[in-house]
Amino acid sequence: MRRTSRIIRARRSSGTPAATATPRTRRAVRAGAAVVAGVLAVSLTACGGDDGGGKDETGGGADETASTLTLPRLDGQSLEVAAVWTGTEQANFKKVLAEFEQRTGAKVTFVPAQDPIINFLGSKIAGGAPPDVALLPQPGAVKQAVEKGWAKPLGAEARAELTKNYSQGWQDIGSVDGTPYGVYYKAANKSLIWYNAQVFENAGASEPKTWKDLLTTAQTVYDSGVTPFSVGGADGWTLTDWFENVYLSQAGPEKYDRLAAHEIKWTDPSVKDALTTLAEVWGKADYLAGGPDGALQTEFPASVTQTFTGGDQPKAGMVYEGDFVQVNIGETEAKVGTDAKVFPFPAVGDSPPVVSGGDAAVILEDSKAAQALATFLASPDAAGIQAKLGGYLSPNKNVPNSAYPNAVQQKMAKALVDAGDDFRFDMSDQAPQAFGGTPGKGEWKALQDFLKNPKDIAGTQRQLEADAAAAYGN
Protein backbone atom coordinates (compact mmCIF):
# COMPACT_ATOMS: atom_id res chain seq x y z
CA MET A 1 0.00 0.00 0.00
CA ARG A 2 1.05 3.54 -0.42
CA ARG A 3 -0.13 6.27 1.91
CA THR A 4 -1.35 7.32 1.61
CA SER A 5 -3.69 12.00 0.79
CA ARG A 6 -3.29 17.41 0.30
CA ILE A 7 -3.15 20.78 -0.93
CA ILE A 8 -0.47 21.47 -3.47
CA ARG A 9 1.64 24.52 -3.86
CA ALA A 10 1.84 25.13 -7.59
CA ARG A 11 4.97 24.31 -9.48
CA ARG A 12 5.84 26.65 -12.30
CA SER A 13 7.11 24.20 -14.88
CA SER A 14 5.81 21.01 -16.43
CA GLY A 15 6.45 17.43 -15.35
CA THR A 16 5.35 18.02 -11.77
CA PRO A 17 2.11 18.59 -9.90
CA ALA A 18 0.14 21.19 -11.77
CA ALA A 19 -0.85 24.58 -10.48
CA THR A 20 -4.14 23.11 -9.38
CA ALA A 21 -4.63 24.97 -6.12
CA THR A 22 -6.53 28.23 -6.26
CA PRO A 23 -5.07 31.34 -4.60
CA ARG A 24 -7.76 31.02 -1.92
CA THR A 25 -6.76 27.43 -1.28
CA ARG A 26 -3.07 28.26 -1.09
CA ARG A 27 -3.81 31.03 1.41
CA ALA A 28 -5.80 28.60 3.50
CA VAL A 29 -3.02 26.06 3.45
CA ARG A 30 -0.38 28.62 4.29
CA ALA A 31 -2.43 29.55 7.34
CA GLY A 32 -0.58 26.61 8.81
CA ALA A 33 -1.20 23.20 10.30
CA ALA A 34 -1.23 24.30 13.91
CA VAL A 35 -5.02 24.36 14.13
CA VAL A 36 -5.29 20.84 12.74
CA ALA A 37 -2.51 19.62 14.98
CA GLY A 38 -4.28 21.01 18.01
CA VAL A 39 -7.55 19.34 17.08
CA LEU A 40 -5.77 16.07 16.42
CA ALA A 41 -3.78 16.16 19.63
CA VAL A 42 -6.88 16.77 21.71
CA SER A 43 -8.80 14.10 19.79
CA LEU A 44 -6.24 11.35 20.16
CA THR A 45 -5.67 12.11 23.83
CA ALA A 46 -9.38 12.15 24.49
CA CYS A 47 -9.88 8.67 23.08
CA GLY A 48 -6.91 7.14 24.89
CA GLY A 49 -8.13 3.72 25.94
CA ASP A 50 -11.42 3.36 24.11
CA ASP A 51 -11.72 0.90 21.28
CA GLY A 52 -15.48 0.80 21.10
CA GLY A 53 -17.51 1.64 18.04
CA GLY A 54 -21.05 2.88 18.05
CA LYS A 55 -22.38 6.39 17.90
CA ASP A 56 -19.88 9.18 18.17
CA GLU A 57 -20.73 11.92 20.63
CA THR A 58 -18.31 14.50 19.28
CA GLY A 59 -20.17 15.39 16.11
CA GLY A 60 -18.60 15.69 12.68
CA GLY A 61 -19.87 14.26 9.44
CA ALA A 62 -23.52 13.95 8.57
CA ASP A 63 -26.32 12.09 10.26
CA GLU A 64 -26.92 8.64 8.86
CA THR A 65 -29.77 8.91 6.39
CA ALA A 66 -31.09 6.92 3.47
CA SER A 67 -29.06 7.27 0.29
CA THR A 68 -30.24 9.84 -2.24
CA LEU A 69 -27.66 8.84 -4.87
CA THR A 70 -29.19 7.60 -8.12
CA LEU A 71 -27.02 5.42 -10.35
CA PRO A 72 -27.90 4.18 -13.84
CA ARG A 73 -28.55 0.55 -14.69
CA LEU A 74 -25.45 -0.85 -16.41
CA ASP A 75 -26.42 -4.48 -17.00
CA GLY A 76 -24.00 -6.22 -19.30
CA GLN A 77 -21.29 -3.57 -18.96
CA SER A 78 -17.90 -4.28 -17.39
CA LEU A 79 -15.17 -2.18 -15.79
CA GLU A 80 -11.58 -2.65 -14.67
CA VAL A 81 -10.31 -0.65 -11.69
CA ALA A 82 -6.57 -0.50 -10.95
CA ALA A 83 -4.91 0.42 -7.65
CA VAL A 84 -1.74 -0.43 -5.75
CA TRP A 85 -3.72 -1.64 -2.73
CA THR A 86 -3.04 -5.11 -1.37
CA GLY A 87 -4.19 -7.35 1.48
CA THR A 88 -7.00 -6.14 3.71
CA GLU A 89 -7.11 -2.73 2.06
CA GLN A 90 -7.76 -4.33 -1.33
CA ALA A 91 -10.32 -6.74 0.13
CA ASN A 92 -12.24 -3.89 1.76
CA PHE A 93 -12.28 -1.83 -1.44
CA LYS A 94 -13.64 -4.84 -3.33
CA LYS A 95 -16.67 -4.74 -1.01
CA VAL A 96 -17.29 -1.18 -2.16
CA LEU A 97 -17.06 -2.32 -5.78
CA ALA A 98 -19.46 -5.17 -5.00
CA GLU A 99 -22.04 -2.64 -3.80
CA PHE A 100 -21.64 -0.71 -7.06
CA GLU A 101 -22.20 -3.95 -8.97
CA GLN A 102 -25.35 -4.67 -6.98
CA ARG A 103 -26.79 -1.20 -7.58
CA THR A 104 -25.99 -0.99 -11.29
CA GLY A 105 -25.70 -4.52 -12.64
CA ALA A 106 -22.20 -3.78 -13.97
CA LYS A 107 -19.32 -6.21 -13.55
CA VAL A 108 -16.21 -4.70 -11.92
CA THR A 109 -12.79 -6.36 -11.89
CA PHE A 110 -10.01 -5.14 -9.56
CA VAL A 111 -6.59 -4.99 -11.26
CA PRO A 112 -3.61 -5.06 -8.86
CA ALA A 113 -1.09 -2.39 -9.88
CA GLN A 114 2.53 -1.81 -8.93
CA ASP A 115 4.43 1.30 -7.93
CA PRO A 116 5.06 3.53 -9.74
CA ILE A 117 1.53 3.24 -11.05
CA ILE A 118 2.16 5.63 -13.94
CA ASN A 119 4.66 3.15 -15.37
CA PHE A 120 2.20 0.31 -14.80
CA LEU A 121 -0.55 2.22 -16.58
CA GLY A 122 1.80 3.16 -19.39
CA SER A 123 2.50 -0.48 -20.15
CA LYS A 124 -1.23 -1.28 -20.04
CA ILE A 125 -2.06 1.58 -22.38
CA ALA A 126 0.76 0.65 -24.76
CA GLY A 127 -0.65 -2.86 -24.85
CA GLY A 128 -4.11 -1.55 -25.69
CA ALA A 129 -5.66 -2.71 -22.42
CA PRO A 130 -5.89 0.22 -19.99
CA PRO A 131 -8.13 -0.10 -16.93
CA ASP A 132 -11.25 2.04 -17.04
CA VAL A 133 -10.49 3.72 -13.71
CA ALA A 134 -7.25 4.00 -11.72
CA LEU A 135 -6.66 5.10 -8.13
CA LEU A 136 -3.62 7.37 -8.30
CA PRO A 137 -1.71 7.93 -5.05
CA GLN A 138 0.03 11.18 -6.01
CA PRO A 139 -1.16 14.58 -7.30
CA GLY A 140 1.85 14.43 -9.61
CA ALA A 141 0.54 11.19 -11.08
CA VAL A 142 -2.85 12.80 -11.76
CA LYS A 143 -1.17 15.62 -13.64
CA GLN A 144 1.04 13.22 -15.58
CA ALA A 145 -2.02 11.21 -16.61
CA VAL A 146 -3.62 14.43 -17.87
CA GLU A 147 -0.49 15.59 -19.70
CA LYS A 148 -0.17 12.22 -21.42
CA GLY A 149 -3.78 12.43 -22.56
CA TRP A 150 -4.80 9.38 -20.54
CA ALA A 151 -7.12 10.97 -17.97
CA LYS A 152 -10.66 12.01 -18.90
CA PRO A 153 -12.53 14.87 -17.18
CA LEU A 154 -15.21 14.04 -14.65
CA GLY A 155 -18.77 14.35 -15.88
CA ALA A 156 -21.55 16.52 -14.50
CA GLU A 157 -22.85 13.92 -12.03
CA ALA A 158 -19.41 13.25 -10.50
CA ARG A 159 -18.68 16.98 -10.30
CA ALA A 160 -21.99 17.53 -8.51
CA GLU A 161 -21.05 14.91 -5.90
CA LEU A 162 -17.64 16.54 -5.45
CA THR A 163 -19.18 19.96 -4.90
CA LYS A 164 -21.66 18.58 -2.39
CA ASN A 165 -19.31 16.36 -0.41
CA TYR A 166 -15.76 17.81 -0.53
CA SER A 167 -14.08 20.97 0.69
CA GLN A 168 -12.70 23.24 -2.00
CA GLY A 169 -9.13 22.16 -1.26
CA TRP A 170 -9.90 18.51 -1.96
CA GLN A 171 -11.66 19.49 -5.18
CA ASP A 172 -8.71 21.63 -6.28
CA ILE A 173 -6.09 18.97 -5.72
CA GLY A 174 -7.94 16.58 -8.01
CA SER A 175 -8.12 19.22 -10.75
CA VAL A 176 -5.66 20.25 -13.44
CA ASP A 177 -5.89 23.77 -14.87
CA GLY A 178 -9.29 24.12 -13.24
CA THR A 179 -10.78 20.96 -14.76
CA PRO A 180 -11.79 18.19 -12.30
CA TYR A 181 -10.16 14.85 -13.10
CA GLY A 182 -9.78 13.08 -9.75
CA VAL A 183 -12.09 12.01 -6.94
CA TYR A 184 -10.10 11.77 -3.70
CA TYR A 185 -11.74 8.63 -2.44
CA LYS A 186 -9.21 7.91 0.29
CA ALA A 187 -7.24 10.16 2.61
CA ALA A 188 -4.55 9.57 5.19
CA ASN A 189 -3.29 11.34 8.27
CA LYS A 190 0.43 10.62 8.09
CA SER A 191 1.47 12.34 11.30
CA LEU A 192 0.94 9.58 13.85
CA ILE A 193 3.07 7.26 15.97
CA TRP A 194 1.47 4.03 17.16
CA TYR A 195 2.68 2.21 20.28
CA ASN A 196 2.31 -1.02 22.17
CA ALA A 197 0.39 0.06 25.27
CA GLN A 198 1.70 -2.78 27.44
CA VAL A 199 5.30 -1.92 26.57
CA PHE A 200 4.74 1.71 27.57
CA GLU A 201 3.02 0.69 30.79
CA ASN A 202 5.78 -1.73 31.78
CA ALA A 203 8.47 0.83 30.99
CA GLY A 204 6.69 3.72 32.68
CA ALA A 205 6.87 5.63 29.39
CA SER A 206 4.53 8.48 28.51
CA GLU A 207 3.23 9.89 25.24
CA PRO A 208 5.65 12.60 24.05
CA LYS A 209 4.62 16.05 22.90
CA THR A 210 7.98 17.21 21.49
CA TRP A 211 10.86 15.59 19.63
CA LYS A 212 13.00 15.89 22.76
CA ASP A 213 10.27 14.09 24.68
CA LEU A 214 10.20 11.38 22.00
CA LEU A 215 13.90 10.73 22.48
CA THR A 216 13.34 10.48 26.24
CA THR A 217 10.45 8.07 25.70
CA ALA A 218 12.57 5.98 23.33
CA GLN A 219 15.34 5.72 25.91
CA THR A 220 12.82 4.74 28.58
CA VAL A 221 11.47 1.95 26.37
CA TYR A 222 15.01 0.85 25.52
CA ASP A 223 15.98 0.73 29.19
CA SER A 224 13.00 -1.56 29.83
CA GLY A 225 14.44 -4.13 27.44
CA VAL A 226 12.39 -3.42 24.31
CA THR A 227 13.75 -1.87 21.10
CA PRO A 228 12.02 1.51 20.68
CA PHE A 229 11.24 1.72 16.95
CA SER A 230 10.09 -0.51 14.13
CA VAL A 231 10.93 1.02 10.73
CA GLY A 232 9.69 -0.36 7.41
CA GLY A 233 12.77 0.75 5.52
CA ALA A 234 12.33 -1.74 2.68
CA ASP A 235 9.55 0.57 1.48
CA GLY A 236 11.21 3.90 0.74
CA TRP A 237 7.97 5.87 1.07
CA THR A 238 7.90 5.28 4.83
CA LEU A 239 11.25 7.05 5.10
CA THR A 240 10.09 10.04 3.05
CA ASP A 241 7.15 10.31 5.45
CA TRP A 242 9.52 10.41 8.45
CA PHE A 243 11.51 13.18 6.75
CA GLU A 244 8.44 15.21 5.79
CA ASN A 245 7.07 15.32 9.32
CA VAL A 246 10.41 16.41 10.76
CA TYR A 247 10.98 18.97 8.00
CA LEU A 248 7.47 20.50 8.15
CA SER A 249 7.63 20.98 11.90
CA GLN A 250 11.25 22.15 11.99
CA ALA A 251 11.53 24.29 8.83
CA GLY A 252 7.91 25.46 8.72
CA PRO A 253 5.17 25.36 6.09
CA GLU A 254 6.59 28.02 3.77
CA LYS A 255 9.89 26.19 3.31
CA TYR A 256 8.01 22.90 3.04
CA ASP A 257 6.05 24.32 0.10
CA ARG A 258 9.20 25.62 -1.56
CA LEU A 259 11.12 22.38 -1.17
CA ALA A 260 8.10 20.44 -2.46
CA ALA A 261 8.17 22.63 -5.60
CA HIS A 262 12.00 22.43 -5.79
CA GLU A 263 12.18 26.19 -5.44
CA ILE A 264 14.95 25.62 -2.91
CA LYS A 265 17.63 22.97 -3.25
CA TRP A 266 18.02 19.83 -1.18
CA THR A 267 21.44 21.14 -0.24
CA ASP A 268 19.70 23.93 1.72
CA PRO A 269 20.67 24.16 5.42
CA SER A 270 17.06 23.41 6.38
CA VAL A 271 17.42 19.94 4.85
CA LYS A 272 20.67 19.44 6.74
CA ASP A 273 18.86 20.33 9.96
CA ALA A 274 16.08 17.84 9.29
CA LEU A 275 18.47 15.02 8.42
CA THR A 276 20.51 15.80 11.53
CA THR A 277 17.33 15.51 13.60
CA LEU A 278 16.34 12.23 11.93
CA ALA A 279 19.79 10.84 12.67
CA GLU A 280 19.01 11.20 16.39
CA VAL A 281 16.78 8.16 15.90
CA TRP A 282 18.08 6.47 12.75
CA GLY A 283 21.67 6.87 13.89
CA LYS A 284 21.15 4.73 16.99
CA ALA A 285 21.28 1.15 15.76
CA ASP A 286 19.92 -0.19 19.05
CA TYR A 287 16.82 1.98 18.64
CA LEU A 288 15.78 0.18 15.44
CA ALA A 289 14.33 -3.34 15.34
CA GLY A 290 16.99 -5.42 13.60
CA GLY A 291 19.30 -2.43 13.39
CA PRO A 292 19.60 -0.46 10.14
CA ASP A 293 20.11 -3.62 8.06
CA GLY A 294 17.06 -5.25 9.58
CA ALA A 295 14.97 -2.10 9.05
CA LEU A 296 15.99 -2.01 5.38
CA GLN A 297 14.74 -5.57 4.99
CA THR A 298 11.42 -4.88 6.76
CA GLU A 299 8.44 -4.01 4.61
CA PHE A 300 5.76 -1.68 5.93
CA PRO A 301 3.16 -4.33 6.93
CA ALA A 302 5.76 -6.27 8.92
CA SER A 303 6.94 -3.08 10.64
CA VAL A 304 3.44 -2.80 12.10
CA THR A 305 2.70 -6.41 12.95
CA GLN A 306 6.03 -6.93 14.72
CA THR A 307 5.18 -4.00 17.01
CA PHE A 308 1.94 -5.62 18.14
CA THR A 309 2.92 -9.29 18.15
CA GLY A 310 4.57 -10.93 21.15
CA GLY A 311 2.57 -9.37 23.96
CA ASP A 312 4.71 -7.06 26.06
CA GLN A 313 7.92 -8.31 24.42
CA PRO A 314 7.47 -7.37 20.75
CA LYS A 315 10.33 -6.60 18.40
CA ALA A 316 9.68 -2.87 18.92
CA GLY A 317 7.55 -0.62 21.09
CA MET A 318 6.59 2.02 18.50
CA VAL A 319 5.98 2.32 14.78
CA TYR A 320 5.51 5.52 12.81
CA GLU A 321 2.93 5.78 10.03
CA GLY A 322 -0.54 6.99 9.20
CA ASP A 323 -4.05 6.07 10.25
CA PHE A 324 -4.00 3.12 7.81
CA VAL A 325 -1.72 1.29 10.26
CA GLN A 326 -4.98 0.06 11.77
CA VAL A 327 -5.46 -2.32 8.85
CA ASN A 328 -2.23 -4.12 9.72
CA ILE A 329 -2.88 -4.01 13.46
CA GLY A 330 -6.06 -5.88 12.61
CA GLU A 331 -3.90 -8.78 11.40
CA THR A 332 -2.63 -9.25 14.97
CA GLU A 333 -4.47 -9.97 18.21
CA ALA A 334 -4.00 -6.38 19.40
CA LYS A 335 -7.03 -4.13 19.67
CA VAL A 336 -6.88 -0.50 18.57
CA GLY A 337 -7.47 1.83 21.51
CA THR A 338 -6.46 -0.67 24.20
CA ASP A 339 -3.43 -2.74 23.14
CA ALA A 340 -2.49 -0.39 20.29
CA LYS A 341 -2.59 3.33 21.01
CA VAL A 342 -1.47 6.39 19.08
CA PHE A 343 -0.16 9.91 19.57
CA PRO A 344 0.45 12.78 17.11
CA PHE A 345 3.91 13.07 15.60
CA PRO A 346 5.77 15.23 18.15
CA ALA A 347 6.67 18.84 17.47
CA VAL A 348 10.26 19.31 16.32
CA GLY A 349 9.81 23.07 15.97
CA ASP A 350 7.05 25.37 17.16
CA SER A 351 4.11 23.22 16.03
CA PRO A 352 3.41 19.53 15.47
CA PRO A 353 3.29 18.57 11.79
CA VAL A 354 0.14 17.55 9.93
CA VAL A 355 0.98 15.72 6.70
CA SER A 356 -1.73 14.16 4.57
CA GLY A 357 -1.87 11.83 1.61
CA GLY A 358 -4.56 10.28 -0.52
CA ASP A 359 -5.70 8.33 -3.57
CA ALA A 360 -7.73 9.85 -6.40
CA ALA A 361 -9.99 7.89 -8.74
CA VAL A 362 -9.25 8.96 -12.32
CA ILE A 363 -11.12 7.84 -15.45
CA LEU A 364 -8.90 6.49 -18.24
CA GLU A 365 -11.57 4.95 -20.48
CA ASP A 366 -14.54 7.29 -20.66
CA SER A 367 -17.91 5.57 -20.58
CA LYS A 368 -21.27 5.77 -18.85
CA ALA A 369 -20.12 3.01 -16.48
CA ALA A 370 -16.78 4.68 -15.64
CA GLN A 371 -18.49 8.01 -14.96
CA ALA A 372 -21.05 6.25 -12.76
CA LEU A 373 -18.31 4.61 -10.73
CA ALA A 374 -16.53 7.96 -10.25
CA THR A 375 -19.84 9.45 -9.11
CA PHE A 376 -20.34 6.58 -6.67
CA LEU A 377 -16.82 6.94 -5.27
CA ALA A 378 -17.44 10.67 -4.72
CA SER A 379 -20.52 9.89 -2.64
CA PRO A 380 -20.81 9.18 1.09
CA ASP A 381 -22.46 5.88 0.13
CA ALA A 382 -19.20 4.38 -1.12
CA ALA A 383 -16.92 5.88 1.53
CA GLY A 384 -19.34 4.86 4.28
CA ILE A 385 -19.00 1.20 3.33
CA GLN A 386 -15.21 1.17 3.67
CA ALA A 387 -15.28 3.42 6.74
CA LYS A 388 -17.18 0.73 8.65
CA LEU A 389 -14.46 -1.82 7.81
CA GLY A 390 -11.68 0.18 9.51
CA GLY A 391 -8.21 1.31 8.46
CA TYR A 392 -9.62 4.00 6.20
CA LEU A 393 -10.35 7.72 6.26
CA SER A 394 -12.36 9.73 3.76
CA PRO A 395 -12.10 13.46 3.04
CA ASN A 396 -15.81 13.27 2.17
CA LYS A 397 -17.40 15.58 4.73
CA ASN A 398 -20.80 13.87 4.53
CA VAL A 399 -19.66 10.44 5.66
CA PRO A 400 -21.36 9.90 9.05
CA ASN A 401 -18.76 10.00 11.80
CA SER A 402 -20.53 7.06 13.42
CA ALA A 403 -19.64 4.95 10.37
CA TYR A 404 -16.07 4.59 11.66
CA PRO A 405 -15.68 1.47 13.83
CA ASN A 406 -13.93 2.81 16.93
CA ALA A 407 -13.42 6.00 18.89
CA VAL A 408 -9.81 6.39 17.73
CA GLN A 409 -10.82 6.44 14.11
CA GLN A 410 -13.90 8.56 14.71
CA LYS A 411 -11.72 11.26 16.27
CA MET A 412 -9.20 11.13 13.42
CA ALA A 413 -11.99 11.35 10.84
CA LYS A 414 -13.53 14.32 12.61
CA ALA A 415 -10.16 16.08 12.77
CA LEU A 416 -9.67 15.52 9.02
CA VAL A 417 -13.09 16.94 8.13
CA ASP A 418 -12.82 19.82 10.60
CA ALA A 419 -9.44 20.75 9.13
CA GLY A 420 -11.04 21.86 5.88
CA ASP A 421 -8.18 23.10 3.71
CA ASP A 422 -5.59 23.57 6.48
CA PHE A 423 -3.03 20.80 5.90
CA ARG A 424 0.07 19.90 3.88
CA PHE A 425 0.04 17.17 1.26
CA ASP A 426 2.75 14.52 1.31
CA MET A 427 5.83 16.17 -0.24
CA SER A 428 7.13 13.15 -2.15
CA ASP A 429 3.67 12.62 -3.66
CA GLN A 430 3.84 16.13 -5.09
CA ALA A 431 7.16 15.41 -6.79
CA PRO A 432 7.67 13.82 -10.21
CA GLN A 433 7.46 10.06 -9.72
CA ALA A 434 11.05 9.63 -10.85
CA PHE A 435 12.10 11.47 -7.70
CA GLY A 436 9.36 10.94 -5.14
CA GLY A 437 7.58 7.74 -6.10
CA THR A 438 9.84 5.09 -7.63
CA PRO A 439 11.28 2.13 -5.68
CA GLY A 440 15.06 2.05 -5.76
CA LYS A 441 15.40 5.57 -7.15
CA GLY A 442 15.33 9.22 -6.17
CA GLU A 443 14.27 10.22 -2.68
CA TRP A 444 13.27 6.70 -1.70
CA LYS A 445 16.73 5.31 -2.46
CA ALA A 446 18.63 8.31 -1.04
CA LEU A 447 16.84 8.02 2.30
CA GLN A 448 17.34 4.25 2.39
CA ASP A 449 21.05 4.91 1.95
CA PHE A 450 20.86 7.52 4.70
CA LEU A 451 19.16 5.06 7.04
CA LYS A 452 22.10 2.74 6.45
CA ASN A 453 24.64 5.52 7.00
CA PRO A 454 23.09 8.44 8.94
CA LYS A 455 26.48 10.12 9.36
CA ASP A 456 26.65 11.02 5.66
CA ILE A 457 24.36 14.03 5.77
CA ALA A 458 26.22 16.08 3.16
CA GLY A 459 26.44 13.16 0.76
CA THR A 460 22.73 12.45 1.18
CA GLN A 461 21.91 16.07 0.43
CA ARG A 462 24.04 16.04 -2.73
CA GLN A 463 22.38 12.87 -3.96
CA LEU A 464 18.89 14.18 -3.21
CA GLU A 465 19.60 17.41 -5.07
CA ALA A 466 21.08 15.63 -8.09
CA ASP A 467 18.09 13.32 -8.34
CA ALA A 468 15.60 16.15 -7.79
CA ALA A 469 17.22 18.40 -10.40
CA ALA A 470 17.07 15.61 -12.97
CA ALA A 471 13.44 14.78 -12.21
CA TYR A 472 12.16 18.38 -12.05
CA GLY A 473 14.19 19.44 -15.05
CA ASN A 474 15.88 22.32 -13.27
Automatic annotation (TrEMBL):
It comes from the Bacteria. This is ABC transporter substrate-binding protein. Pfam families: SBP_bac_8 (PF13416). Residues 1-48 form the signal peptide. SUPFAM superfamilies: Periplasmic binding protein-like II. The keyword Iron does not apply. Residues 1-26, 48-67 are annotated as: Disordered. The keyword Transport applies. The lineage of its organism: Bacteria, Bacillati, Actinomycetota, Actinomycetes, Kitasatosporales. Belongs to the bacterial solute-binding protein 1 family. Residues 1-12 have a biased composition (Basic residues). Keywords: Signal, Transport. InterPro entries: Bact_solute-bd_prot1 (IPR050490), SBP (IPR006059). Residues 13-23 have a biased composition (Low complexity).
